[in-house]
Write a structure and sequence with these properties.
The chain is α/β, with parallel strands linked by helices. It has one domain: SPOUT methyltransferase, trefoil knot domain (Alpha/beta knot, 3-Layer(aba) Sandwich). About 45% of the residues lie in helices and about 25% in strands. The chain has 5 helices and 5 strands. The longest helix has 20 residues. The protein is globular.
Length: about 160
């Protein structure tokens, strides 16, 4: 199953970029033996500042065809790392070929697109900067692959 990250905003060089690249490389290496591969990291930008609806339209057009959507949303369910890993494994085992994890802009994900998500996930009740969410998601993907592989990265 290909796992893509689709988000609003462009990632510039810097510490977040380095962390994201490192964790996604680790995820791809660990996940390949498990049937999990890194798809695309898709970035969209509302250059005309038309707001959440425009961002939602850009994200929707950028999503891989027939991908299952999981939305990162502050109103979503809070999962433990093992629960996230189990969910990823279940989606893969159901024969899903593409999973798109979407991260909205400063105002979140457009409500209609959010409603299309098969799952909404929150990293807690606090609000996180967009780039830190990308770092945390990348790390959790690597952690999930490690958990599924039985590797010692995740400690209980």
């Amino acid at each position: 199953m290909r796992v893509s990250i689709c988000c609003v905003g462009r990632l510039r060089q810097g510490p977040e970029h380095d962390l994201i690249t490192d964790y996604l490389t680790r995820f791809d290496r660990t996940g390949r033996a498990l049937g999990l591969t890194l798809g695309d990291v898709i970035e969209v930008e509302d250059k005309k500042n038309q707001g959440m609806k425009a961002e939602g339209d850009l994200l929707r057009r950028a999503l891989p065809k027939s991908a299952m959507i999981w939305a990162l949303d502050e109103r979503g369910e809070t999962l433990s790392s093992p629960e996230f890993a189990t969910g990823l494994g279940q989606v893969r085992d159901q024969g899903t070929s593409d999973l798109a994890l979407i991260i909205g802009g400063a105002d979140g994900i457009e409500p209609n697109l959010r409603g299309e998500a098969a799952r909404r996930i929150s990293f807690g009740r606090m609000v996180w900067p967009h780039m830190l969410v990308r770092v945390m998601l990348s790390e959790q993907l690597y952690r999930a692959a490690s958990i599924l592989a039985g590797a010692p990265y995740h400690r209980v």
